[in-house]
Design goal:
With 365 residues, this protein is an alpha/beta fold. Helix 9 packs across helix 13. It is globular and about 60 Å long.
Length: 365
């Protein structure tokens, strides 16, 4: 098949494209590289700035590029907002893709109307980026996301695309739970892809200190709970300076991020997640132990009944601290959790296996 993957989140489309190519399909990945992360792509759609001159250059590039986005068997967009444009300007680009290609699919991979809606109902999730039990979480990021994605044009765009497209693929339990009440007839869950052939599992060399890795995006720290995890980790390192140390990456490009990860034993991931997303999955493929989302729903949707590699934490500083302390006091647990982490990725996230699942779904619609 001839396939266009449009947009990027955390290397999902590029890695999926590698799996599809391994199966003999012709694939084009067009994206902005997910902003500063600068992931690989075949066609660069990065917008330099929001200034008038750069905006004009970006629109001219889209005008030159979009006529080539015709005649594909499958087009998959990463999100309803798959270009660096306001939601109001997205409609003609979406309709062009719909009109000039055979099938169009949408990824439920991140921020959108149905994800926000599920968080705000305080019932779908015990906790999420938007709720803590029956209480809503209030912070500046959430207010912006609610205004944009739930009350604003991005929300209306999401509903339009979700109803119009040929099918929706959810990449995590949370996104599946958000969409299933409304689109069970056109929704499937497919795990995110990881290319194990490009990953060398880390040898835990028995160094004296447990090395904890944490990635910090300053603009999303509170929203993702990184601020809480960082405080817990700082307390731990202060208490056990001879037993552990911190490796902190702050908004660095993907290649540098990986290099810093490679020196570590344990990765702290998103606090309010039920499941490991792409960064955590990559860490697990390398043999790092992930501290973050490993709720029962994560294993259930994968039908995994044996492996339990993720150190699941509740969304509060004391539980994070306690779980980290247990690893510092019992570092002998790390090699077995590392082994399970690698096996977990092989079973569920191998990029060729995932690509076959995509082909099966696309051809069934």
């Amino acid at each position: 098949m001839r396939i266009l993957l449009l947009g990027e989140y955390s290397n999902v489309h590029w890695t999926l494209g590698e799996g599809l190519r391994a199966l003999g399909h012709e694939v084009t990945v067009a994206s902005d590289g997910d902003y500063w992360k600068d992931y690989h792509r075949d066609i660069d759609l990065k917008r330099k700035s929001l200034g008038k001159f750069d905006t004009l250059r970006y629109l001219l590039r889209l005008a030159r590029t979009f006529p080539t986005f015709k005649g594909y068997d499958v087009v998959q967009i990463i999100n309803p907002v798959f270009l660096d444009l306001s939601a109001e300007k997205m409609y003609p680009f979406y309709r062009y893709l719909r009109r000039h290609n055979k099938k169009l699919f949408m990824g439920a991979f991140g921020m959108d109307y149905y994800w926000v809606k599920a968080g705000l109902d305080c019932q779908t999730f015990r906790y999420s980026d938007f709720n803590m039990g029956k209480e809503l979480r209030h912070n500046a990021d959430n207010d912006i996301y609610i205004a944009d994605w739930y009350e604003g044009e991005k929300g209306r765009l999401t509903q339009y695309v979700a109803n119009d497209c040929d099918g929706i693929i959810s990449g995590l339990y949370e996104y599946d739970a958000s969409y299933r009440p409304y689109f069970a007839h056109k929704l499937t869950f497919i795990p995110f892809p990881i290319n194990m052939g490009q990953v060398t599992p880390i040898e835990h060399d028995g160094h004296q200190k447990v090395r904890f890795f944490i990635g910090v995006q300053k603009t999303r720290s509170e929203y993702k709970g990184t601020d809480i995890m960082l405080r817990a980790l700082e307390r731990l390192v202060a208490r056990y300076p001879d037993r552990c140390e911190m490796v902190k990456a702050e908004s660095v490009p993907f290649q540098q991020y990986q290099q810093m990860m490679n020196t570590s034993d344990v990765m702290l991931d998103q606090l309010y997640s039920y499941t490991p997303a792409m960064n955590a999955l990559l860490a697990m493929a390398k043999g790092l132990v992930v501290v973050g989302g490993g709720e029962p729903e994560n294993y259930e949707i994968l039908h995994e009944q044996e492996l339990r590699p993720i150190i699941n934490v509740q969304p509060n500083e004391e539980d994070v601290y306690h779980q980290l302390q247990e690893l510092v006091l019992h570092p002998e647990r790390i090699p077995e959790l590392s082994r399970q982490s690698v096996e977990y990725i092989r079973r569920h996230h191998d990029h060729v296996k995932v690509a076959r699942e995509y082909i099966d779904f696309w051809t069934s619609r």
